[in-house]
Amino acid sequence: MSLVQVENLSVRYGAKTVLSHVSLTVEHGEIVTIVGPNGSGKTSLLRSIIGAVKPSRGRVTQSSDLRVGYVPQRLHIDPTLPMTVARFLALPGGVSAPHLGEALAQAGVPDLSGAQMSRLSGGQFQRVLLARALIGKPQLLLLDEATQGLDQPGSAAFYRQIETVRRDTGCAVLMISHELHVVMSASDRVICLNGHVCCEGTPEVVASAPEYRALFGSGTMGALALYRHDHDHAHDHDHHYDHTEAAE
């Protein structure tokens, strides 16, 4: 059985229809990316999957006892509040130190447990949110534009970490993003959304589809090829990655 199955989903806010007849599945261990222009219904789809939005038509089915981890776009923490990363991850309590350490290591920031949340860089902060999502050992990891505000190298590094998480834990990943070439290249399957599913397939298939090019142009193919080339060599220099600065 699929981890998540969305069947003929429609979502309305008042008189406005934001999603119409959307169907998709997320299978065990795969990375699925949803792309689309602003206002295309990406976040509404994600919120429908987690049960925060009630569809006006259709249904969402999850496998039994599905464990879900969620990484939001952003999270505001009062900068005057003294709170270490370990304390933040332990909220609301009941998480052991070894589990915290394991989650931070999986997120690529194993040495941050004693750092103050208010002093983290943008990239470090998102890695900590990723670690928090991983504490519950999710079968499905949801990311809602989780690299918003990071520069391109920081985003690329973050999505390489997502690939590592999938490889090491076997969890499936469903993410939405505006960073087309970076996020698509990290995906097994891409769904192009614009109120409905415009096209779906591998990154190369979607980037070549007329419906995709009508929305985003043809520049992504070149960027995708370039990222693929860079990505093949990523592990050669990943050990030089400075978590303090390069994640910014």
CATH class of the largest domain: Alpha Beta
How many strands, what sense, and barrel or not for the largest sheet?
6 strands, mixed
Rg of Cα set: 18 Å
- Give the total of beta strands: 9
Q: Beta-strand percentage?
A: 15-25%
**How many domains is the backbone divided into?**
2
- How would you state the average pLDDT, rounded? 85
- Secondary-structure element pattern, one letter each: EEEHEEHHHEHEHEEHHHH
Structural class: alpha/beta
Strand order of the largest sheet: 5-6-7-3-8-9
Helix content: 25-40%
Shape: globular
* CATH-defined architecture of the largest domain: 3-Layer(aba) Sandwich
Output the CATH homologous superfamily of the largest domain: P-loop containing nucleotide triphosphate hydrolases
Please mark out the parts with pLDDT under 50 across 5 or more consecutive residues, or reply none: 222-248
- Here the CATH topology of the largest domain equals Rossmann fold
What is the number of helical segments per DSSP (H or I, 4+ residues)? 10
Distance between the termini: 39 Å
Written account of the structure:
By secondary structure, the chain is an alpha/beta fold. It has 2 domains: 4-67 and 139-239, P-loop containing nucleotide triphosphate hydrolases (Rossmann fold), CATH 3.40.50.300; 75-137, no CATH class. 37% of the residues lie in helices and 23% in strands. It is built from 10 helices and 9 strands. It has helices spanning 42-49, 85-90, 97-106, 122-134, 152-169, 180-185, 203-208, 210-216, 219-232, 234-237, and strands at residues 4-13, 16-26, 31-35, 57-62, 68-71, 140-144, 172-176, 189-193, 197-201. A 6-stranded mixed beta sheet has the order 5-6-7-3-8-9, sandwiched between helices. Strands 2-1-4 form a 3-stranded antiparallel beta sheet, with helices on one face. Helix 3 crosses helix 4 (122-134). It is globular and about 50 Å long. The model is unreliable at 222-248 (pLDDT under 50).
